[in-house]
Amino acid sequence: MLEKLCDSLLNAPIVRRGEYYYFIHPIADGVPFLEPDLLEEITDHIVQIADMDVDRIIAIEAMGIPLATALSLKTGIPFSIIRKRSYELDGEILLSQQTGYSKGELYINAIKNGDRVLIVDDVVSTGGTLMALITALKSMGAEVCDTVVVLERGEGVSRMRDMGFEVKTLVRISVDENGVSIED
Ligand SMILES: O=P(O)(O)OC[C@H]1O[C@H](OP(=O)(O)OP(=O)(O)O)[C@H](O)[C@@H]1O
Ligand SMILES: Nc1nc2[nH]cnc2c(=O)[nH]1
């Protein structure tokens, strides 16, 4: 199961971002290139495990976008992108994003009270991005039916679960200067 994804992880290059060992992988960076077979394997799996009875798929810029696009084509469910820049539309919600290596701002548009949403993203590490997003969506009245992330590294997901946030992940990895390892 998820053979293409697991195989592809073993060759992922590592670069330092400050103290953080950042892996580079097609699904998390679009670099060097994303094979359709790999995207298909991953999104077929997401359709199997996620609650797809939703009004909207929510993707975080940038690398939630290919996942949401493929899921949308498979299911006919529209998607919204949480953008890293403002559109200054009425009702736009700003949230702060903090990862293990960066800080920034995210902007939510066009989610209304009662919308049933599925969040998809490529990687969860500290969980900072997802916790901020889920909290903001709930405060806007959205029902976060499910959250699915392809790759889990670090302690973020267990921290999230301790704090009452639910998240499904496809593969758990660890990363050091030598590369990516797949956890059981
Ligand atoms: O669990 P966290 O520590 O919050 O990290 C996870 C976030 O980091 C990456 O986003 P990044 O801002 O690097 O965006 P990208 O998709 O543009 O690479 C990833 O896509 C997640 O959104
Ligand atoms: N590509 C990539 N995205 C990330 N998002 C959070 N951590 C990482 C990482 O190590 N690599």
UniProtKB/TrEMBL annotation:
InterPro entries named in the record: HGPRTase-like, PRTase-like, PRTase_dom, Pur/Pyrimidine_PRTase
EC supergroup of this enzyme: transferase
GO molecular function, one term: hypoxanthine phosphoribosyltransferase activity
Subcellular location: Cytoplasm
GO cellular component annotations of the record: cytoplasm
Ranges for domain Phosphoribosyltransferase: 50-171
Catalyzed reactions: IMP + diphosphate = hypoxanthine + 5-phospho-alpha-D-ribose 1-diphosphate; GMP + diphosphate = guanine + 5-phospho-alpha-D-ribose 1-diphosphate
Pathway annotation from the record: Purine metabolism; IMP biosynthesis via salvage pathway; IMP from hypoxanthine: step 1/1
Keywords: Cytoplasm, Glycosyltransferase, Purine salvage, Transferase
Main location: cytoplasm
EC number(s) reported in the record: 2.4.2.8
GO terms classed as biological process: IMP salvage; purine ribonucleoside salvage
Pfam families: Pribosyltran (PF00156)
Signal peptide limits: none
PANTHER family in the cross-refs: HYPOXANTHINE/GUANINE PHOSPHORIBOSYLTRANSFERASE (PTHR43864), XANTHINE PHOSPHORIBOSYLTRANSFERASE (PTHR43864:SF1)
Cross-referenced HAMAP family: Hypx_phosphoribosyltr (MF_01467)
Similarity comment text for this entry: Belongs to the purine/pyrimidine phosphoribosyltransferase family. Archaeal HPRT subfamily.
Function comment: Catalyzes a salvage reaction resulting in the formation of IMP that is energically less costly than de novo synthesis.
Subunit comment: Homodimer.
NCBIfam families noted in UniProt: HPT_Archaea (NF040646), PRK02304.1-4 (NF002635)
Name this polypeptide is given: Hypoxanthine/guanine phosphoribosyltransferase
Organism: Methanolobus halotolerans
Lineage of origin: Archaea, Methanobacteriati, Methanobacteriota, Stenosarchaea group, Methanomicrobia
